[in-house]
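User: Can you write out an input/output pair for a complex, sequences first and structure second?

Assistant: Here is one pair. Inputs:
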Amino acid sequence: MHLNRFSRIILMLCIILLFGQPGFTTAAVAATQYDYINISNPFLNKIPVAVPVFKCMSDPGTEAEDAETATQLLTAGLDFTGYFKLIDRGAFLENLQEKGIVAKALNFGNWTGIGAELLVTGGIWKVNDTVRLELRVFDTFKGEMLFGKRYGGSADDLRRMIHRFCDELVYRLTGRRGLFSSRLVFIGKNEGKSSIYTCEFDGQDLKQVVQSDAITLFPAWSPDGRLIAYTSYARGRPEIIVKELGGNESRRIAFEGINITPTWVPGKSGKLAATLSTSGDEEIYLLTRSGKIDKRLTDSWGIDVSPTFSPDGRQMAFVSKRAGSPQIYIKDMETGDIQRLTFEGSYNTEPDWSPEGDRIAYSGMNNGHADIFLIGTDGQGREQLTRDSGSNESPAWSPDGSLIVFSSTRTGSTKLYVMTASGTDQRQLVHMTGEQILPDWSPALTSD
Amino acid sequence: MKHQRLRLGFGLLLLIVSFVFVVSCAKHQDVLQTPGGDAAEVAETPEHKAAEQAGEMTEEELAAQKEAAQRRQQAERARAAKEEFLDENVYFGFDDSTLTRKARQILAQKVDWLRSNPSVDVVIEGHCDERGTKEYNMALGQRRAQSIKNFLVNAGIDPDRLETISYGEERPVDPRHNEMAWAKNRRGHFRIK
C-alpha cells in the first residue's frame, strides 16, 4: 500500500516536472491527482517523518551544537506546516553518528519499524565560521532517496538554509512553496500605543516598523514585498499611508472622509484598492501607484468595504451591505458583473482570496462571536474552521495557501493564531503583551 | 410633544432661576446687616449721612449685581446648552446607521444649538460596539456620522460646518463586554472643531 502510494508521488513529481511552472498551475495539478498528501485534507493524515540528529562530519567537538540546532530547526519547520507528524526521537533505533547519512549506510527497517514513512538525514561540516549541510529525504518503505540538497554559508545562515530545504521538501510533496521565505505584518496594541510589527512566518525575528499614539489599522503587504499600506489616524482622521519597509519612501492617501482597508492589486502595477467616503458614501476605489483615484469600483448606496483580489486580478471580492446585512460579493473586473457569494449567516466580512484562487477565507459572525470560514469562489463547499473559541477574525492566507493566520480572543485578550487551511493545528503565533490584531501575510520573499 | 417638553423645561428653568435669585438676594441682605450693626456705633459721628448715602449706593449696586447675575445666568444657560450639545450622544441599533425617533429629537435640539451658535464648526464622530469586525465597523461608524450630518444638513445647517469622522470600534466609552456597554458604545458624538 505504501509502495503504491509512493509510486503515485513519483508520478506526481513527473507531472510537476513536465508542467514545469511552479505555483498556481502546479498546485492545481497536485490538487487533483496527488493523494500521498491528500490535498482535500492534507492535514488530517499527516506523513510520519523521522529527523534524527544530524551527523557531525568532521569534528563532533565543534559541530555537535550546530548539529543539534539545525536538527531542531528542521523539526520545528516541518512541524509548523501541519503536513507532518514528527516521530519522537526517543523511539529511534538508529543513530546517524554511528551509521551514516546515505542510503547504503541506513537500515530502513529500523525506520519503517517505528512508523516513519519519510526519513530526513543531515550531515554538518563546520570549518571556522563556515557551515556546510548535506540533507537527504528518503522514502523508508521503498528504501530510496527522494532528493538531496547541499547548502553552505556562515553559521548565522543556518536557519535560512534549513528553511530553504523545508520549502523544497514541502514543494516536492505538495506543489506549494513560499511559506518558509514569508513574513507577517500585524498591529500590536499595548499601553495606549499602536505599532506595526513584522515577523517571520513562524513568529520569529519580530521587528517594529511603526510606533504611534494614534490609531493604526489594516496593514497590507505589497505583492513585491517592498511596501506596507495601512490606515493611520496620525493626523486626526483615517488616512492611508504607504510605507517602504527598511526605507524612507512614504506617501499619504488622504481623501475627505475615511481612507481605509487598503489592498494591493496582484502583479506589478503597484495599484491599490481601498474604501473611501469622499463621495459621502463608503465605496471601493482603484488607486494609482501615486495614490490618485483611477476609478470607482463599487456604486451602491451604503457600505462597501474590504476589497481582496483573485490571484490573477480578474475578480475582486468585497463586503457590502447592499442587501441589508454585511455579505461578501464578487465583482468581475472586466464585465463589471457583481455576484453575491455568501448567503448563510447575517454578518460575513473580511474576505481574503486564497493564493490558489479557488477559495475565499472570511469571518462570519453569530451571537456576537466571529468564526473563520472558507467558501469556494463558486459559493460551494462552505467550511467552518474555528468554533467555540472566542471571537476569531481577520483571516489571511500564507502565500503557499497552506496556512491561515487570524486573531482570536480564545484566551481573553486578542492574540494571533495560525492554523492549516483545514482548520487543524491551531496555535498561537507570537507571544507578547497587549493585543495583536489584523495580520496580513507577505508574498514569498525571495531575498532578505 | 416636543414643544410641551420645551415649555416644561423652560418653566423649570425659570423656577430655578427665580429661586437662585431669591437666595442670592437674601445672602446680600445678610451682608448688608453687618455694616448696619456697626453703623449704630458710629451714628453720633458726622458720617451718619454718609451711611445713608452708602445705603443708596447699595441699591445701585444691587441693580448692577442683578444685571450681572442675569448675565451670569445667561452665560450659565449657554454653557449648559453647549454642555448638553456636546454630552448628549445619539445612539444606534446593532449594525444600523438609521436614526431612531429619539435620535431625531436629540438632533433637532442640536440643530437649534447650531443655529444659535453660527460661528461654531463641529466634528461628528461615528462609533461602533466591539462586536463585528474592525474593517466593517470603521465603515459603519462613518455611515453613522454621515446619517447625522445628512439630518443636520437637511435641517438647514451649512455642510461646511460639519466634519464627519469614524472611529469604528476603536474608542469605546464603556470597555465592558455586555449589552449595556454595547448600547452605550454605538453612538454618534459631537465635538467642537
